[in-house]
Amino acid sequence: MSKPTPTFLRMLARSFLAGEPTIEQIVSRARQTLGRRWRWLAPLVRRYLAVFAGNVRPRQRDVVQFFLNDHGFKNAYQKHSHKLEIAQWLTESQRMQPVPSAAGWNVPEIESIGKLADWFGVTAGELKWFADLKGLECRKNLPRLRHYHYSVLIKVSGRVRLIEAPKPRLKHLQRQILVHVLDKIPPHPSVHGFVKGRSIKTFIAPHVGQRVILRMDLQDFFPCVVGSRVQALFRTLGYPESVADLLGGICTNAAPRDVWSAHSSYDVSPLHLREARELYSRIHLPQGAPTSPAIANLCAYRADCRLAGLAKSVEAQYTRYADDLAFSGGEFFDRCVERFSIHAAAILLEEGFTVHHRKTRIMRQGVRQHLAGLVANQHPNVMRPDFDRLKATLINCVRHGSQSQNHENHPQFRSHLDGRISFVEMINPAKGNRLRKIFERIQWE
Q: Using CA atoms, how far apart are residues 438 and 402, in angstroms rounded to an integer?
C-alpha cells in the first residue's frame, strides 16, 4: 500500500488553508495544485469544513492529520496514487481568516513573514531571533544575547515569582503589538484590570453593600497562559500560522534554568523552587512584558463568559481584576455560595487556570468585606491599617523631615507619596483630602 508523501500532504493542506474557507474556493485551489478536478475533492472539502469551519484557522499539521485519518481520502489515494502529483506549487501567502466575531476588529492585515518584518521595521532574520521559536534563550547560557532581564522574588507564602523584563528592542516590538493589535480587541465587560477606563474602583463597585461576597484568586496567572494558547489567539484574529507563531513568540518566553542557580541560597522550600523552575521553563506569558496583561485577559475571555453566565444563574455579579475574582449577591446567592465556589473552580480548571484555594473567602455583611485591598461593606474605602500607616508617614515627614521616612530609598519619594495619596483620593475623596493637607505641610529637602 502506497502512502502519500509528506510533501504531497503539505502542499494539499496549503491549498486548503490559502484563501477563503468556502467549498468553491478550496476546490479551485486544490484543483490548481493537483492539475485536475478529481471527483473526490468536493466531498473531502465538505468533510474538512464540517470539522474546521467556524473555528480558529487550523494549523497545517492538523489538516495533514485530517487527511491521514479520512477514509475517503485514503481510499481515493490508494485508487489513484499513480496519477496523483503536485502539478503546481502554491507560492502565494495565506490570507487573513478571522473568526466571525473578530471580522470587525481593526487589526493590521499581515499575511506573510516578510510583511510582518516590514511592519516591525526589522529584517526577517532579526524577527525570527526576537521570536525565538527554537527556544535558544532557554537552552543557551549566553546572558548577553538574551532578550530578558530576570529577577526572582520570594513571596510571603514561600512561593517563588519570576519577573521577566524585556530588553529595549524586544520591548519596542511588544509595545507595537499592544498598541496596534491587542488594544483593538474589546475586553470582556467583567474585566477591570489593565483596561482603559476601568480601575480597581470599578472592579469593586458592583459588590458594594451586597449581602455576601465570594473572593477567589488565580495562582500563577501569567505563567499559566502557555505559548500555544497565545499563538491560537493570533490565529483567531485571522493571521496565518507562520505570522501567528512569530507574534506569539515575541510575546512569550521560556526562562533558562540557570537563572535559579543564583537563588539556591535563599530560604525557599526545594519543592517550591522545583515547581517554579518547571513552570517558568515552558513557554509562557512573561510577567514584565507590556503585552502580557492584555493577552492574559483575552485568553481568559471564554472563562469570563462562563463565570459571568454562572453568576447570572444565581442572581450574582461577577468582576475580575487580573488574578482577583469577585462574586456577590443577595439571599439566593448566599444560600448556594459554597457549591457555587466549587463550580467556579471547576470552570477555571477546565479553562487552564488554577485557583489558589487558601485565598478563597466567603464574606458576609457581619465581617469586613475586602477585595484587592479595599473595603466594600457600605462604600468603597481603603483599609484602616493602610490609611493609618500612610497618615503616620506623612506626619513624621512634617515633624522629622521627608528623608527620615524614606526607609525603602525611593529615588522619587515625593512622587511616591503623591501617588499613594492620589489613590486614596480616588477611592475616598474625604480621607484623601485630609492626607493631602498634611502632604502640603511637608518641607521637602
A: 12
